[in-house]
Amino acid sequence: MLIPIYTGRVIDSLRTGYQEREFLSAIVFISVYSLGSSLGAGCRGGLFMCVIGSFTRRVKLALFGALANQDIGFFESVKTGELTTRLSEDTTRMGRTVALNINVLLRTLILTLGTVGLMVSLSWSLTLLVLLETPVTGLIERLYHSYHQRLTEEVRDSVARANAAANEAVSGVWLVRSFHAEAGEARRYDDRLMDTHRLKTLRDRVRAAYLLARRVRGGVCLCVCVCVCVSSSTHPGLRPLPSVLQTLISIFGDMLSSVGASKKVFEYLDRTPQCTMGTLAPEQLRGHVTFSDLRFAYPSQPDSPVLQGFNLVLKPGTLTALVGVSGGGKTTCASLLQTLYRPQHGAILLDGHPICSYQHHYLHRKVSVVTQEPVIFSRSIRDNIAYGLPDCSLDDVQQAAKKANAHNFISQLEKGYDTEVGERGGLSKSEKQRVAIARALVRRPQVLILDEFTSSLDADSEVKVLQALSSGSAPTRLVIAHRLKTVEEADHIAVIGQGRVLEQGSHRELMEARGSYYQLWEKLF
Ligand SMILES: Nc1ncnc2c1ncn2[C@@H]1O[C@H](COP(=O)(O)OP(=O)(O)OP(=O)(O)O)[C@@H](O)[C@H]1O
Fold first, then answer.
1. Is there a single domain that holds both residue 143 and residue 220?
2. Looking at residue 251, which CATH number applies to its domain?
3. Ligand 1 — pocket residues by CB below 6 A?
4. Reported ipTM
5. What is the domain range of residue 189?
6. Distance 323 CA to ligand 1 centre (A)
7. For residue range 300-356, what is the model confidence (pLDDT) as tens digits?
């Protein structure tokens, strides 16, 4: 703020005849203020860099937490690529832009107030003249930022689409390779990259036009100012105001645009998941499950109910097999029992209470699932089995692995339970499935859902696992299976079709009834 004043004094002292004392004192002041200003700027910049790092980490963590709590319907409607872009790029940009702008805004605000004060004390008429530049600057900034913000959002969305295409191709690389679709996938990715490139080029052209307009405006205003200064012999120290005002206006616009760019991040942060859980966590749970008059349609197809008037009871400790034609809604029942979705009508009761009234953590310890496609995380086998149970001992892990007929193959591995396995590599499908069964069993669940869990198991493993599951205090088991052995051994069989239970009873009863189970048996088994 003060440096231009002393610069003006140096020029004055040279113009009106050299006076050593005045000249030297002005130089000393300029040096001291410059040094102070540099030190201040260095400290401020350094501190803000630290703040940016910590702020970005916290925003990422908050966003990750918010995303992890969303219902499954949300993940079906938003692409993985988009979510990872928001998480990796948008949060970083948001942290950097907001923190940097606040830094510059604070500095410029103080500078502006001080400079205006100094200028008014020197010449109010010239101050007014300089301030006339502000509306022009404001108009240019407003026009630019509203257009630029829209373009930036479009660029971000198109980057997310390109990422989604790359993610899809990488995660399905086996299929891409075996169908020789590499060129097609590359073309698809290139199309999306071209979209991004086109939008970025447009955005950069707009920026170039904006910078030109800013320069022209600055040049014109400088000429006017210098002419007036020369004609009225006013102090040249007045010049800094337009530049700080311009920075202030530009920072304000930029902040608005970065806040706008962070819109999606805030949208996800503020999104409340549809399935909120209750607080019930009883010490004893029998595992009595009742599906009562359920109606359910997937959020993406609200007008096509998958279940309608669905009623079924799973008695504690029994094995119930759910059979029916493909697409009949068997997996949907399992998903509803895990509270992945919420039925539009009716309720699922666990020991007489709606499942959503149980504590989230408690419910998922008591209700375990083995899915059709076992998910294995990139960590050790032990950590995969004890997933979500930080206090689980190795002994418990081994017991569960023995029941799942996985202990033998794990023990034969060089590092045993500490063997690192990847998302895709390292284990065969049957081994992955057995690890997934052990993961479900280690929780000692009261209700166990086994969705096509025998599809990758050999007959020997299937028998062993089924025997282990029925021994001791067996949990309530709901099995979705196409295998003869599993279905025949069930205590209760329910045939699902047209969104409801068509027929139920034991294998013998249903075969004798010669109804839909009998027909299914003839067709499927
Ligand atoms: N996430 C989803 N969004 C929309 N519709 C879905 C979704 N998942 C399943 N569906 C539809 O719901 C119906 C029932 O599917 P579900 O997976 O429950 O059947 P299923 O009996 O388990 O079939 P399968 O024996 O082939 O595994 C099907 O018509 C399917 O297309």
1. yes
2. 1.20.1560.10
3. 76, 298, 300-301, 306, 324, 326-332
4. 0.95
5. 3-270
6. 14
7. 888 888 999 899 999 998 889 998 888 888 889 988 888 888 888 899 999 989 998
Residues 6+ apart with CB under 8 A from 310: 291, 293, 294, 295, 296, 329, 333, 346, 496, 499, 500, 501
Dihedral sign computed on CA atoms, order 276, 281, 282, 288: positive
Residue 368 and residue 511 in one domain: yes
What strand order describes the sheet that includes 307-314?
307-314, 289-296, 345-350, 353-354
User: To test ligand 1's pocket by mutation, which of 306, 338, 496, 523 has the most ligand atoms within 8 angstroms of CB?
Assistant: 306
Q: How far apart are CA 308 and CA 311, in angstroms?
A: 9
Of 236, 270, 304, which residue constitutes the final position of a domain? Answer: 270
Q: pTM of the entire structure?
A: 0.67
Residue of the CA atom closest to atom 23 of ligand 1: 327
Q: Of 240, 270, 300, which marks where a domain is finished?
A: 270
Residue nearest to atom 7 of ligand 1 (CA): 298
Looking at the domain assignment, is residue 277 inside a domain?
no
Which residues, 6+ apart, have CB-to-CB distance to 27 below 8 Å?
6, 10
How close is the Cα of 330 to the center of ligand 1, in Å?
Answer: 8
3-state secondary structure of 279: coil
C-alpha closest to that of 126 among 272, 226, 36, 271: 226
Per-residue pLDDT tens over the stretch 387-412: 888 888 899 999 989 888 889 888 88
- Which residues contact residue 212 at a Cβ distance below 8 angstroms, ignoring those fewer than 6 apart? none
d(CA 199, CA 448): 51
Query: Closest ligand 1 atom, CA of 334?
Result: 18
Cβ contacts of residue 132 below 8 Å, gap of 6+?
none
Residue at 194 is within a domain: yes
Distance 329 CA to ligand 1 centre (A): 6
Summarize the chain as % helix, strand, coil (round to 5).
65, 10, 25
| Ligand 1 center–CA 331 separation, angstroms | 7
Do both 265 and 189 map to the same domain? Answer: yes
